[in-house]
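Two proteins, back to back. First:
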Amino acid sequence: MIKTILKLPFPSTTFECEPTLKYLIGRDHELVFVLLDEEDNKYEYSINFEGIEAYKCTYLSSISAEMVEAYDKLIDCGRSDWLIEIEKQCR
């Protein structure tokens, strides 16, 4: 079951460029967005993640119908096949 954790407070069409994933320290990362408003003012928005074991990125040309539901959101996909495989590798 897909659960929405965060909905972006702005549409992704306002991104100046693609978001970047920055390595911080240990297994911590920061997802950074640079936004433009109507007057072309730039704003930086970020989401921090701690204790990352793995992450997966799928680009527009490869998304599934279910992924369209997640557009502009951070979601929890539950116990997906991919998560189960990662858990097995960590044991």
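And the second protein:
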Amino acid sequence: MLDLLLIPAAILLAFALRAVRRGDHRLHGHLMVSAFTVVGLRILLHPRSLAQVHLAAWAATLVAAGTTILLGRKALAWREARSFRAYLPRIHRAFGVATLSGLVLSTVIWLFRNRT
């Protein structure tokens, strides 16, 4: 039943990616933190139902997402002219791609789990 929490997380992720394409970077950040929180709550609420492999994959994805969020805050500071580090948006994008790849891998592992 807790797996249904992943549906709103996927919807939030889709809206966040749409927001960044429209250039609304602050809304993108809020939606990504919301999606991160929903997935984190799912992992935190019932970790016994997940096998060690699934828990490790989701934990690694959450660590990558947290790092991406922190880099996103720094990139947003540069976009709003509060920082002089022009390389941060590129690093944030690279970590974002790695996080999305980890999310896809974690989801595939979760979908093909043994339900016996």
